[in-house]
Each structure stands twice: as C-alpha cells, then as structure tokens.
Design brief:
189 residues; alpha+beta; NADH Oxidase; five-stranded antiparallel beta sheet; 6 helices; 18% strand
Amino acid sequence: MPPALALLQQRHSTPSRQLGEPAPDEATLQALLEAAIRVPDHGKLVPFRLIRLQGAAKLHFGEQLATLAIRRHPQLSEAKREKERLRYTFAPLVLVVVARLDADSSVPAVEQQLSAGCVAHNLLLGAHALGFGAQWLTGWAAYDREVAAILGLAAHEQVTGFVHLGTPQIEVPDRDRPALTDLLSTWLP
C-alpha cells in the first residue's frame, strides 16, 4: 500500500464516551477547521457551517435536550433521561456540522448535504492525522426542528452531525470492514 494511503487505512472512530482531554488547542483546532472546509462544493455555495459546543455549554445543551425528551416522553426512564443530559459531555469538544441548503440553487439539495457531510468526514480524518480521536454521531437530535431552534438554525439549515473530538482514553480496536470484492463491479455496455 502506498504510504500516502496509510491514514485512510488506519482511520477509525473512537466512541465519544472514550474521548477525554485534551482537545486540540486553539491553533490546532483552527488548522483542523481550515482543512476540514476544503470540500467539494458544486456551485461554490458553501452549504455548511460549524457550531462549537465546549465546556459548560455542552452540559447546558444536553440539559435542554433532556427537557425536550422528557416533555415528549414523560415515562422516559431515569437512565434514559441521564443519557440525554450527558450525551454531549464526554468528549471535550463537539462540533455541530450544519448543512445550509439553498433551495433556489440549481445544485441539488443532496449535493449540498453531501458537501456538509464531507466537512464532517474531513474532521474525522484530520483529527486522526493529528493524533486525536473523533466520532460522528447523529441521533434524534440531528433531525429535530426544536433542537435546530435551540442551536439557532434557520429554516433552510439542518444538522449533518455532531463530531465529538478529544484524545482517545483507550485503545480502540478496528471493526470488521467490508471486502472490496463485494462492493466493486465493472459496468459494461
């Protein structure tokens, strides 16, 4: 394998519960973010933005989500209430990747969403390259309009994912990967 592809071959997600301090320092984070936004962007729409959740804001965000979940499901067990409350507190940094969809553009919405998805993936690759761990999560909160309002999203915006960043606290084994032979075919006319 060419050495340049080693990064891609070694990348894996670190569960958010296994991410601790330190997070990237401010200069490293800025470099990571500058690299992460270098994505395919048909039409130069910049159909994405980022929101940083860090420190006490992560717990406050989780508490708002727990309140919302309890309001919708009053029978929610105490364990599930606590899970909602603490969901964003394990990794020292959570970046919310937001897709900004331009409905008036000739660029299909799916291409705009994929561009935002590439930002999230670049964050994973970049974190790994820098020696950090990361996990891209969604969950119900990513698809909920009340959560979008909590985050200050406009009507044309949607959460692509929550990228949890930090330092792996354990050695994470790689998962089984699909065989390329099961995925690649050659089209013939």
